[in-house]
Amino acid sequence: MRLGDAVRAAWNDGMRCYYLAIVAGVGLAMSAFFPWVLIGDRTLGGVPGIAGFWILGLGVLAALLATLSLITRKNSRHPLLIIGLAAFGIMFIGYRFLERAATEQAWAVAQATEIVAGRSLAEPQVASIGAGAYTGLVASAVLVLFGLTIVFRRAANPYPEPEDDDV
Fold it and tell me: What is the mean pLDDT of the chain?
């Protein structure tokens, strides 16, 4: 099968929207390896922490569920909605907690350094959001919106019609 035929088959597939969920799940898993908070030359967040492992697990689970939905032709939008909500909550709260902790730690270090040096107190470095937080928040929001489509669409039959493979 050529690449063009594969793309055409995927485009004409009745469950083609699950490819978006697979990409969002992979993006969510990848965001666990990027820094979530940047403060000066230091980076915080991601896989060494517990929140990073949760995000990695949720991303892998989302990609796995979406792939299984494509294979079995069964709907898994409700679990993907729950996974997206959990991931969004972890990413948002984790980022806010890390930002505050990093800012307070930078302020304490800057204050201690200036006191020891005998200089006046300087402003500490400000924490900024990293690529991992952006990627994770966008991917989890895509999963939430994808899961909400079954709620707002209210299809009479949320499962696709079975295809006759014997023809």
Answer: 84
Task: For 28-63, write each residue's pLDDT tens digit.
Answer: 999 999 998 888 788 888 888 888 999 999 999 999
The percent of the chain in helix, strand and coil, each rounded to the nearest 5, is 65, 5, 30
- Name every residue whose Cβ is closer than 8 Å to that of residue 19 and which is 6 or more positions away in sequence: 10, 66, 70
Alpha carbon distance 130, 38 (integer Å): 6
The candidate with the shortest Cα–Cα distance to 69, out of 123, 151, 147, is: 147
Per-residue pLDDT tens over the stretch 116-134: 888 877 777 778 888 999 9
Q: Which is nearest to 89 in space by CA: 141, 128, 17?
A: 141
Domains of the chain from N-terminus onward: 14-152 (1.20.140)
Supply the pTM of this predicted model. 0.78
Distance CA 54, CA 50 (A): 6
Q: Report the distance separating Cα 77 and Cα 155, nearest Å.
A: 13
Task: Report how far residue 34's alpha carbon sits from residue 136's, in angstroms, rounded to the nearest whole number.
Answer: 9
> What is the DSSP track for 82-115?
HHHHHHHHHHHHHHHHHHHHHHHHHHHHHHHHHH
* Count of CB atoms situated within 10 Å of the CB of 28: 31
